Amino acid sequence: MQESVLRERAEAEGRASAAARREARDRAAEEARSQRVASASGAAEALQRKHRGALKKLRQATELQSAEQLNEAQRAKLAALPSLQAEVEALAAEAAEAAEASRAVEEAAEAERRAEAARRSDEARAEAEEAARREEEARARWEESERRTAEAAEVAKALSVERFAYVAPEWR
Q1: Is 95 exposed, middle or buried (0-12, 13-18, 19+ CB in 10 A)?
Q2: Where do the segments described as Disordered lie (predicted)?
Q3: What is the dihedral of CA 114, 120, 126, 128, to 10 degrees?
Q4: Hey, which of 1, 47, 65, 111 would disulfide with 95, CB 3.0 to 4.6 Å?
Q5: How many Å is the Cα radius of gyration of the chain?
Q6: CA distance 21 to 19
Q7: pLDDT over 70 (residue 164)
Q8: pLDDT computed for residue 47 by the predictor
Q9: Nearest alpha-carbon partner for 25 in 97, 93, 165, 119
Q10: In the prediction, which pLDDT does 140 show?
Q11: What is the distance, to the nearest Å, from the Cα of residue 165 to the centroid of all Cα atoms in its chain?
Q12: What is the DSSP string of the chain?
């Protein structure tokens, strides 16, 4: 009896330890996914900021085209207009690619989360089946114990002194 209690406690501790390891692994995986998503979205945001800055410079340079008197720095900005336009177009393409890559990383992370949830669901189902099996085994052990106790009670009753009352007292 003591041995079975100790075994059950050890099994319970083992299950708790395995659950803690799974939880730690799941947290680490979620953190890694979050970092990948944050990195991809950060890169996309940085490119969008660069693109907005280049658009602002381009807008300022095009406004200088309508000005009548330009100083040296303004003429240099106006001369750089074609290169600014090319830079804006290139940054727009890069920002679009980075945004698409960021969305792809987010979708992949969400797919990983769904797969992880499905795996946890399968594990929970397996654990529930294992618990039901252990409960059934415990019930079978209890029924066996009850049967043995009933048999022992019958034997004790059969061997009781009252059953042998017809025997001479000196034989008892």
Answers
A1: buried
A2: 1-63, 96-151
A3: -120
A4: 47
A5: 40
A6: 5
A7: no
A8: 92
A9: 119
A10: 92
A11: 74
A12: -HHHHHHHHHHHHHHHHHHHHHHHHHHHHHHHHHHHHHHHHHHHHHHHHHHHHHHHHHHHHHHHTT-S---HHHHHHHHTHHHHHHHHHHHHHHHHHHHHHHHHHHHHHHHHHHHHHHHHHHHHHHHHHHHHHHHHHHHHHHHHHHHHHHHHHHHHHHTSGGGGTTS-GGG-
Between 170 and 7, the higher pLDDT residue: 7
Nearest to residue 47, comparing CAs of 106, 91, 104? 91
pLDDT in tens, 60-114: 888 888 878 888 888 888 888 899 999 999 999 999 999 999 999 999 999 988 9
Contact (CB, 8 A) for 94 and 49: no
Rounded to 10 degrees, the C-alpha dihedral 87/89/93/98 comes to 50
Listed by start position, the domains of the chain span 2-122
